[in-house]
Amino acid sequence: MMKAHDENVRAQLSYQPQDERQASSLAAALARAGADVVPTADADADADAGADAAGTDAVVLLWSYAAQAAGVTAPAGGERVVPVRLDDCSLPPLLSHLPQVRLAVGVTDAAAAAIARLALTDPPVGDKGVEPELPVVISDFGPLGQYETCPRCGVGSDRLRPYVTVDHHDDRALRLVICGSCGWQDHGDL
User: What is the pTM of this model?
Assistant: First the structure.
């Protein structure tokens, strides 16, 4: 269930200093999607982070190898968390069951819109504490679209990978999405 459409999401964007460039791009894209963003670098070390983020709808946690190395954990206090995977670093168990967005080709406005939707979506009533078998993972492939599953075999979007190649026969650069399970692919000009 979504909150009223006239509400804009207010989100705390938590990230590591090493990911500041991507966090800045994501904050700008979220703002274009209508979100009010409170950026917080290295939330564990910033004592004012909780005060700055008071009244937010969700914590958008930019997850990367830098976050894993810093020992970042899920925010306490029952806050809604939307993990945003910057790279292929797997999420810790406390976050891996949550609906998440994977930035397969970097920050896009479509990915920001998906993050804002997840931040405003309430969990189903009566399902609290019940872990789904497979989390919703929305992978954003820029101009090739967003996928939750492979269109051919149905495997989760974690098995889809972006590629860039050159078609030497037609002399053009291509952007591809390829399924690691069944070999399905989609492509478009780069």
Answer: 0.71
Residues 129 and 156 in one domain: no
pLDDT band at 1 (very low <50, low <70, confident <90, very high): very low
> Residue 69 CB: number of other CB atoms within 10 A?
11
Encode pLDDT of 84-107 as tens digits.
Answer: 999 888 889 888 888 889 887 788
Q: Tell me what pLDDT residue 60 has.
A: 92
Q: Which domain holds residue 185?
A: 152-189
Same domain, 134 and 161: no
| CA–CA gap between residue 90 and residue 97 (Å, rounded) | 11
Q: What is the mean pLDDT of the chain?
A: 81
Asked if residue 147 belongs to a domain, the reply is no
d(CA 135, CA 83): 11
Do 159 and 93 lie in a common domain?
Answer: no
- Write down the H helix ranges in 88-161: 93-96, 109-120
